[in-house]
Design goal:
about 20% strand; two-stranded antiparallel sheet; single chain; about 25% helix; 9-stranded mixed β-sheet; globular; alpha/beta
Length: about 220
């Protein structure tokens, strides 16, 4: 009986994501997804992506620094919750000011919700007042799948040695309501605080929530 409210909440979350669009099947990566687990930090997969300015950026470029990766999709109401309120941008500014590299990734495939490229990608940064270090484009979904990213938003915190210390949902309020940001436990901020204080990250994984990433259809 205890699990029924959890199941109901999960069903409501999926329903909200899929309003005004056909259900999207999110492919499962063949390899074990790269996620953080308590006491067993995995090495983040190496990757190179093109950013909104047309410049190639590699995760290896930022070795020696703490890195946050954020998967986003402007059309997702769960993303809109964090951006329309300014909460995501505030966290980005806070992190970047502390020397963290913040990489926002869009893994939406061409023709699918959230996909942008070229001038549209640059306009996205301006329109959303984004404060991330780089906006990276992953239209074939290779990087998203390598990290096991399933939703927007979906988050990773990577340490200076390239290990994933946190993965999953940004906070403990899995809704698309702005008012639920107040009092929420932001796991990314907490992980960054732990890293900055030189202590182990207390929450290594949180159940991701939001809209499914709009990956290409599987062959």
């Amino acid at each position: 009986m205890i699990r029924l409210p959890i199941l109901a909440a999960a069903l409501l979350t999926l329903a909200a994501c899929q309003q005004a669009e056909a259900p999207v099947s999110v492919p499962t990566a063949e390899a074990t997804p790269a996620v953080a687990t308590p006491g067993q930090a995995q090495v983040a997969p190496a990757f190179t992506l093109t950013d909104s300015e047309g410049v190639q950026r590699s995760l290896a470029d930022f070795r020696g620094k703490t890195v946050v990766i954020e998967w986003t999709n402007e059309g997702c109401p769960y993303v809109q919750k964090h951006y329309s309120s300014g909460a995501m941008q505030a966290l980005q500014r806070e992190a970047v000011a502390d020397g963290v590299v913040w990489l926002t990734v869009i893994s939406s495939a061409p023709g699918k919700q959230g996909h942008i490229e070229g001038e549209a990608a640059r306009a996205w940064r301006t329109r959303n007042n984004a404060a991330s270090t780089h906006l990276l484009l992953d239209p074939d979904g290779t990087v998203g799948k390598a990290f096991g990213a399933m939703t927007t938003p979906d988050m990773r915190v990577i340490d200076a040695e390239g290990r994933i210390l946190f993965s999953g949902g940004i906070d403990d309020r899995p809704t698309n309501k702005v008012e639920d940001l107040e009092g929420a436990n932001n796991f990314v901020r907490a992980a960054l605080d732990d890293v900055g204080a030189g202590r182990a990250v207390r929450t290594a994984y949180a159940q991701p929530y939001g809209c499914s990433i709009k990956y290409p259809e599987e062959a």
